[in-house]
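Handout, section B. The chain below has 315 residues.
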Amino acid sequence: MRIVSLLPSATEIVCELGLGEKLVGVTHECDYPPFVTDLPKVTRTLIPHDASSGEIDALVRERLKTQRALYTLDLSTLERLGPELIVTQALCDVCAVAEAEVTAAACSLPGRPMVVNLEPMRLEEVFDCLRLVGAAAGRQDHAEVVIANLRGRVQTVEARTSQITLRPRVVLLEWIDPPFCSGHWSPELVRIAGGTEMVGQEGKASRTTTWQEILNADPEVLVIACCGFTTERTLADIPILTGYPGFADLACVRNHQLYVIDGKAYFSRPGPRLVDSLEILAHILHPDFHALPTHLQPAYRLTADTLLLGEVLGT
């Protein structure tokens, strides 16, 4: 079976199911597992590579008004690859190729490839997506093994969290300029990890939030996982965050509980690495209960002696 993936999380799902050798095309954003970067790219973006966070947000909002996506298909490459299965999504209106464009393309291709549309809102629905792709590719049994393994890791975190009585107030930000609270599966991950998400809601979309709402929540732990941004790219926006009024008065700042996580790899991609995201988050919130698995890197912690925060904290 020749498979084309139209979003990074789908690529990770396909590979987790042992179907990596069946992948013939991926998006310009697919980068994990590393070998997929050598595959033909079937999408391109309308976002300038040097756009600031504020400019990206403005571009996203403008596209939302016209119901047009920020990514578009390379139809000639797609036709040349001749996929039998296309894995796509309709969860986000702008962060992948528009559903209507995918459907039209599939109808125009020889053989009319099967299109599998993934729309998870919660962690269990992500597992359902693995099952759906497995069924479409004839790997149902393998999918169940993968799901059982992932669910077992989640249950291990849940068991440890059950011993915890003090749950810190948490805000998980998906964007800094402007602030976006987390949504979909992320507040659920906060709960399982042993925290209380103060702004985002489980199973609801992430949304723009006012800075005042974050001040009112006064998080004891602030986790920043900007959607599609690496840790390094997110750190470039920290001065914007520290410039918001009242930032230095937050409990998380006073207690030095601010963390940056690679939002390109974790939290924003509803695939197998959401379980990695959970384990990283659990270690942040309760390191004495949740040891960090050896295959994961710890979150980047912003401390008082970090130059990015020095002026705000008066150090």
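Note. The longest strand covers residues 169-175. Compare this with the example in section A.
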